[in-house]
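Sequence and structure are no longer studied apart. As an example, we show below a sequence and the tokens encoding its fold:
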Amino acid sequence: MSRRAPWIGLATALLLLAARAAPAAPTAHADVEAPPPFDAFAEGLAAEWMRADPEGATTHQYFSGAEQDALDRRLTARDSQYGIPLRSAPRARYIERARHGLDELVRYGRADLTSVQRASAAALEWQLADAIRMAAIEDHRFVFEQFGGLQVALVNFLTQVHPIRSARDVDNYLARLAQVARVLDEGITEARSRAAKGVVPPDFILQASIEGIDRLLAPQPADNVFVSSLAERSSGLAGYAPEERAAALARAAQLVRTEIIPAYGRVRALLAEQLPRASDVAGIWRLPQGDEAYAVMLRANTTTDMTPEQIHALGLAQVARIESEMDGLLRALGKVDGTVRERYAGLEASVQPAAEPDPRPGLVAEHARILADAIERAQSLFDLQPKAAVRVLREPLFTEKTAAAHYVSPAPDGSLPGTVRIPVPGPTYEILEMRTLTYHEGVPGHHFQIALQQELTELPAFRRKRVFGTLSAFAEGWGLYAEHLVAEQGWYEGDLKGHLGQLSAELFRARRLVVDTGLHAMHWTRQQGIDYGIRPAEVERYVVMPGQACAYMVGELAILAERDKAKRALGAQFDLKQFHNWVLRTGTVPLAVLSQVIDADIAAAQPRRTIQPVGRARARSR
């Protein structure tokens, strides 16, 4: 069924708010010396940015040869969500690079640029300004936390992102492994500095982080994830002698035993030291200038000027709409007693797999089957599709308890496909949402958006590789739009339970708007978030990542508003595949920039009307 109409008013209002956040187009300065061509300037700035971010350079494989190899051996302490250096001196240099980029960018008049360059300039201006805003409030974030803190980010980066394609990559891995203890110690120093300013995680965050470290330290060094992942990924490596591999694994185990385990022990000791003095207050409002910091984080994640109050109200309205739709489907299944939440929970309980044999391998395999089916179904909706393959893998055990399902980009050199990571910690599972989760993270969601963007040679490299940030509102908005789209297109025909799962996932994103703003602007407690229908681990995610949960539905609404705008303008000439081409070819940009690009695409697609001269018209009328 079509569910477009209830969105229009809210989505249009959201589009107007996004437009308010659009950067003003700068005018060219009269410089004595002409600036370099815009593309050369942008790529030079991006290269400078990547040289200062070894982990980002590795993730994107931004360079080649000796320069990339040297970066692949370095490890730094930085915020895993925003890429901002944790220590003050590198952070000051980070801010200076952004300011220099803005100063140079103003030299380019937008009228002199191509359409792609204008979008690039607008996105770059927004992202550089946002980098400065976010760096200014970096001290409001927790260095160590259970979801993406430094102690988690190091594991994820080294075991999932650092490439293992050759013996040299293994050597680079070991070089980085030898730096883990130093980076953790830098993080400890920074965490103590922030604690002195009153920035200490709530007690429940500290406890969850300690439990995660305990899981990491539980295996013997030779079985630690830093060693086991290397063993798995180097197995069968072409041209890698068995004795060389054995020596590398022994070296990794030695580093884990003598340096990494003690360093993680020091992190644990710090968190345990802070625990007795920590409070249970969840929101960032309790920190010095917390309200101002939250406004910056909301803007970074939604790319709009929406206030916490506006987002909270939007969430409440969407919760009411979606629960009404779910009520109708539940009644169609004969579920009439209790609240929507109670009836849905009863339905979910009725489809839980038996505990024995272990259902988790089968659940991961089912996600893979859903993904393969989605690839076939998507042919009728998309002209543009990535060449890169996509797979499903289970989330590593160390992070599985606190991780959310997520997408990992394919390696730019083709050595790794796109990957949908699925955590299945148990003992219960979200069976009804399996389909919509796979559509969001895989196809036609993040894989179509992120992998395709990497392959679009018409875009400059810094946009293809998202050098200056991931812009969650566009990226997560597309993922949620993909969920909405397939429901509109009848993919759940004959599967009311699966459709309920899709609506439940959408309801979850709407509740996020309410809970995130509730926690950080309206002084909600952790328990209030749980009582509103968000599971504890998710509430704790919002506590340590303020504003990020608001990106999803805000972005989805903006994309739906753009689609409605195109439909109204083009009428019978509107083509859904063409609209998807417009959005995907734009790549990850702030929502206001997306709106500007779609306006231009609509104008180009409209038939040109022949306007006859007034004099001739009068002559015929005589």
